[in-house]
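User: Design a sequence. Structure:
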């Protein structure tokens, strides 16, 4: 019984710093500074995927920050959720345009989903959990925000480890969709895609494609119940149906989502939607924020815009 209780305590309240291993602290001051002590910056991977939205990151994915993210994601150090959410909230604020920041509607945080198998294995969805914490942090700072977890994986993808940027884009092409009824939710405020980490930008690019396609379908047919499957080959009205809420999240997250007011569900596919790929478009209403990004994406000579 004592061993079981110790395991549970370590899960919720780690016995050592998630970044450097210092005992008796969730996150020491030095590692907290490494995570969220710098001004969030715009980041741009090389090569930059066509269709990648503007992305801001709180920290470089290295050393203590890398250790913190891995401890939260792979070892279930859930006590790190709050500081990670604080870092993500800073990146979200940095990425909002003046129009978005002055919008009276809530900022909609749309987490990039993990594969269902990974969620089951880990016991939680890291990006979703951090998004919930970030939304709370934003609200406490006076920025209305809510989590709209509408993206779903609609087909299996290969493990991204070991794939280069081009292979990752191909691997994820058409893999995400906005769940039924979710497209309408995405019209309720400025959309910010969120994730814990950006390396090549492939996941955020695919997420942006799915969100743009879903909102374009809603705009085209004037309805808010567009379901998954719109590819641009036929009119969006072909794919409308009654809203159905379906979400197979890890059970441990359901109570937390109800407390924070997150919303679920909504559509689409990659190369089939005209105008959804290609260079970043002027006036793009979708942006993105991550806790950390690869160090080379922070290089100054690529962040002048």
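Assistant: Done.
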């Amino acid at each position: 019984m004592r061993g079981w209780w110790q395991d549970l305590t370590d899960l919720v309240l780690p016995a050592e710093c998630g970044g450097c291993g210092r005992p008796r602290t969730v996150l020491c001051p030095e590692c907290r500074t490494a995570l969220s002590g710098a001004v969030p910056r715009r980041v741009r991977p090389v090569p930059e995927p066509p269709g990648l939205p503007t992305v801001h990151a709180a920290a470089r994915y290295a050393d203590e920050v890398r250790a913190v993210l891995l401890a939260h994601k792979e070892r279930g150090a859930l006590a790190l959720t709050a500081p990670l959410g604080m870092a993500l909230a800073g990146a979200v604020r940095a990425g909002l345009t003046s129009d978005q920041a002055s919008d009276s509607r809530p900022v909609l945080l749309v987490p990039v989903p993990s594969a269902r198998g990974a969620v089951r294995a880990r016991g939680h969805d890291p990006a979703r959990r951090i998004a919930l914490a970030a939304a709370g942090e934003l609200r406490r700072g006076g920025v209305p925000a809510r989590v709209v977890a509408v993206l779903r994986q609609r087909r299996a993808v290969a493990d991204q480890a070991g794939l280069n940027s081009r292979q990752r884009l191909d691997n994820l092409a058409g893999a995400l969709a906005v769940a039924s009824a979710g497209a309408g939710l995405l019209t309720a405020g400025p959309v910010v895609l969120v994730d814990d980490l950006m390396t090549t930008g492939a996941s955020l690019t695919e997420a942006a494609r799915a969100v743009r396609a879903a909102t374009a379908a809603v705009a085209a047919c004037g309805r808010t119940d567009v379901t998954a499957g719109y590819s641009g080959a036929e009119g969006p009205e072909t794919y409308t149906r009654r809203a159905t809420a379906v979400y197979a999240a890890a059970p441990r997250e359901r109570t937390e989502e109800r407390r924070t007011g997150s919303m679920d569900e909504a559509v689409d596919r990659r190369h089939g939607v005209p105008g959804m790929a290609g260079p970043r478009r002027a006036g793009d209403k979708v942006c993105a924020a991550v806790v950390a990004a690869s160090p080379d994406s922070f290089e100054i000579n690529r962040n002048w815009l």
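The mean pLDDT is 76. The first strand starts at residue 41 and ends at 43.
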